[in-house]
């Protein structure tokens, strides 16, 4: 089952010029729990019952006669997390649960709004799916297999990354906003595993992830790309700023000074390749970042290189 099969196409929509009074009137008239702020079929933001509760709380503590005239832009959550219409139900449910979201706008491949799926929609559909499968135990095993988190490092796994990249592709085509990514690889990690053993190798990777996280900004997102390779998405940092993000991650691992006697540096290090673009698909950026990573490796490791 995919999101398109369970989403609602009856949605409460308002333009960005609307105010709080318009939101309340529409939600009361249509009996909905959220309002989407759109322009030219593109989702700009979302206002939910939680947002209204916050305004109501503010009114109790500091009454304001003009509260109803507040603009939706001052209240909404800008660029809410959306899902593609062909996203599997389980992926959408795990995303909703992990991000604590009750409303997910649904977009097509061009980034245009086509519907809305709620936590209730997904829960109802999932219960029906379990009924059809018959055994709760096998359903739980399937849900675990479809987890978006790497079981060892507790960061996004390849499945989560693929979902994120699909959304980035759609957003890039829609808004032509630039974004960057960093391919990271632990240097001489096979030698580390051969010398210290795989259990110690897993512990080392956990230390590397912890070090990288200390260097990240709140908007950066880290995924395990495979083995000892990671992909760091830096959507709000491009060019020299993305290069700085990569260098901070590299330096954080150096500062950890984790012993690696089989490495020329005698400590665990990583190399990175950086690529950024505007209106370009993620596959091309990953390929460019991967080439830059090999350049960093061939230059002696523990380096960061920018793609052409």
Walk me through this protein's architecture:
The chain is 46% helix and 20% strand. The protein is of the alpha/beta class and 308 residues long. It is globular. The mean pLDDT is 86.
Defining key terms:
five-stranded mixed beta sheet; alpha/beta; globular; CBS-domain; Alpha-Beta Plaits; single chain; 2 domains; 308 residues
Architecture blueprint of SSEs:
Blueprint lengths: L12 E2 L5 H11 L3 E6 L2 E7 H13 L10 H4 L1 E2 L4 E2 L4 H11 L3 E5 L5 E6 H15 L2 H10 L12 H18 L2 E9 L2 H8 L1 H18 L5 E6 L2 E6 L5 H17 L13 E9 L3 H17 L5 E3 L2
Parallel strand pairs: 1-2, 5-6, 11-12
Antiparallel strand pairs: 2-3, 3-4, 6-7, 8-10, 8-11, 9-10
Helix pairs in contact: 4-5, 8-9, 9-10
In summary, what is this structure?
The chain has 308 residues and is α/β, with parallel strands linked by helices. The protein is 46% helix and 20% strand. The strands form 3 sheets. Strands 9-10-8-11-12 form a 5-stranded mixed β-sheet, sandwiched between helices.
């Amino acid at each position: 089952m995919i999101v398109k099969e369970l989403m609602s196409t009856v949605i409460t929509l308002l333009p960005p010029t609307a105010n709080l009074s318009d939101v309340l009137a529409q939600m009361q008239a249509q009996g909905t729990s959220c309002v989407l702020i759109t322009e030219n079929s593109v989702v700009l933001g979302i206002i939910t019952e939680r947002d209204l509760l916050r305004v109501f709380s503010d009114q109790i503590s500091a009454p304001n006669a003009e509260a109803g005239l507040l603009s939706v832009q001052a209240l909404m959550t800008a660029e809410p997390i959306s899902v593609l219409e062909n996203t599997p139900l389980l992926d959408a449910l795990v995303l909703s649960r992990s991000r604590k979201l009750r409303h997910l706008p649904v977009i097509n491949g061009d980034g245009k709004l086509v519907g809305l799926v709620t936590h209730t929609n997904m829960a109802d559909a999932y219960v029906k799916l379990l009924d059809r499968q018959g055994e709760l135990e096998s359903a739980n095993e399937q849900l675990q297999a479809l987890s978006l988190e790497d079981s060892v490092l507790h960061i996004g796994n390849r499945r989560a990354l693929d979902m994120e990249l699909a959304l980035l592709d759609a957003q890039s085509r829609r808004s032509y906003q630039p974004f960057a990514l960093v391919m990271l690889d632990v240097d001489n990690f096979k030698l580390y595993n051969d010398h210290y053993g795989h259990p110690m190798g897993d512990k080392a990777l956990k230390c590397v992830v912890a070090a990288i996280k200390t260097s990240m900004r709140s908007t950066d997102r880290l995924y395990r790309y495979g083995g000892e390779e990671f992909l760091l998405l830096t959507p709000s940092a491009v060019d020299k700023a993305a290069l700085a993000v990569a260098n901070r991650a590299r330096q954080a691992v150096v500062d950890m000074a984790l012993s690696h006697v089989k490495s020329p540096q005698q400590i665990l290090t990583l190399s990175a390749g950086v690529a950024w673009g505007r209106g370009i698909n993620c596959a091309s950026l990953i390929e460019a970042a991967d080439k830059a990573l090999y350049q960093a490796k061939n230059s002696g490791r523990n380096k960061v290189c920018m793609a052409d």
